[in-house]
Amino acid sequence: MNIRKILPFIFASALVFNVACSSDSDEIPAVTYENGILISDEGGFSTPTSNVSFISNDLGKVYNKIYSTNNSNENLGNVLQSIGFNGDHAYLVSNVPNKIDIVNRYTFKKQTTVTSNLDNPRYIAFSGNQYYVTNNNFYDVMKMNVYNTADNSYVKSIDFPRSAEKIVEAGGNIIVQTDGVTYETTAPYGELSTGYTVTVVSPSTNTINKVITLPSNGIIRDLISYNGKPYVLASDNTNSYIYELNASAGTYQTTTLTAIPQAQKLRITDNKIYFTTSGNKIYTMNFGSTTVPTAPLATSTGNLYGFNVIDGRIYVSDANYSGDSKVNVYDATSGTLLKTFATGIATNGFYKN
User: Fold this and answer.
1) Helix/strand/coil (H, E, C) string of the chain?
2) Which of 47, 119, 138, 271 is deepest in the core (most CB within 10 A)?
3) CA pair distance 332, 305, nearest whole angstrom
4) What HEC string does 156-186 produce?
5) Model confidence over 125-168: pLDDT tens digits?
6) Other C-beta atoms within 10 Å of 73: how many?
7) Mean confidence (pLDDT) of the chain
C-alpha cells in the first residue's frame, strides 16, 4: 500500500479502432467492454483523475478513460480503490470522495451512485442479495457496511477494532481482513503490523461468526478466494507465509515461503500460485506444493502496484501518480513479456470482464 492513501466485446465487425492514449482530447469509439480486461486507474489523491481503462483479450485494443467517455466527461473521483462485479453491473469503489458508482459493465453507462454511510470505502464482495464494503480511514473508522443489491439501500455496519481491508466471499461466508498494515506517524513512515486477525461474517445473519488469529509473523498483505476457500498472504523481512483458512472450523494450514521476504500480492489460478515480492519479482509455484521457488518467473519494472493473473497472462502495473502509468503483460508460464501499454494515473488493478 502506498503511503499517500493513509493521508486522509463484442466489437462491431465493420468498425475501425484506434488505440486511445491518455490525453484529455482522446476520442474513444463506442464499444462494448466485454471479452477483455478492465483496469482501475486510481488517480491522484488531491485531483479528480480516477478513471478506468480497457484492453481486449487479444491485447490489440486499448481504451483509456472509458468511464468519463461514456458518462458525458463526468469526473469519477480522486481515488478509485477497487472494482467489484454482480451480474451485469460493475461497482466502482472510490475511497475519495466516499462513493460507489454502479455502471453497466459492458457499456460503462452509470446506473446510480451509492454514498450512504461510506467513510473511506476500500473493497467490495457479494453474497446472495447483499453486498459488503469495507471502510478504513486508518484512524478511527474500521467497519464493513452491508447493502441490498435490489435497491442499494443501507442495511447495517459491523465495526472492527483495528482494520478493515480486503474482503472476499468464500464457501458461503464473507471473509474480512481485519488486520494488516499501519505506518509510523513520522518520516520515513515505516510499516507496522496492526495485528493478525481475519474475521468470518455469516451472510444469513450479518453477524461475526469467527475471528481467526494467525501467527504473529510479519504483516498481513493480501486476502483472496480460490475454489471456495480463503487464502491469506503475510510476510516479514525473512520469510513469507500463505495461510489456507478453514472458515467453518476457524483453523488454518501454513505454507512457509522460506527465504523469500516481503511478499506483497497473492493470486491462485489454474492450480498455480503467483506472488510478488519487493524488487518487482514475480514468483510462481504449483498449488499444494511445499517446494519453494528459488528464482522469479519474471521481474517487472518501476513501481509494481497493480497485479493479477488472468487467462494465462500476468498483468502488472508500473504506477505513476502524476501521469500515465505503464502496464506490462507477461506469459504466466514462461514469464515472457508479451505487451506493454500506457494507462491512466496510478493503475492499481486488473479485472476480467
Assistant:
1) CCHHHCCCCCCCCCCCCCCCCCCCCCCCCCCCCCCEEEEEECCCCCCCCCEEEEEECCCCCEECCHHHHCCCCCCCCCEEEEEEEECCEEEEEEEECCEEEEEECCCCCEEEEECCCCCCEEEEEEECCEEEEEEECCCCCEEEEEEECCCCCEEEEEECCCCCCCEEEECCEEEEECCCEEECCCCCCCEEECCCEEEEEECCCCEEEEEEECCCCCEEEEEEEECCEEEEEEECCCCEEEEEEECCCCEEEEEEECCCCCEEEEEEECCEEEEEECCCEEEEEECCCCCCCCCCCEECCCCEEEEEEECCEEEEEECCCCCCCEEEEEECCCCCEEEEEECCCCEEEEEEC
2) 138
3) 18
4) EEEECCCCCCCEEEECCEEEEECCCEEECCC
5) 999 999 999 999 988 999 999 999 999 999 999 999 999 999 99
6) 10
7) 92
Residue 43 pLDDT level (bands cut at 50, 70, 90):
very high
Average pLDDT value for residue range 185-210 = 95
Q: Name the nearest CA neighbour of 168 among 251, 233, 240.
A: 233
How far is residue 50 from each of residues 19, 40, 54, 307, measured CA to CA in Å? 19, 8, 14, 18
Per-residue model confidence (pLDDT) at position 183: 86
Residue % of the chain over a pLDDT of 70 = 92
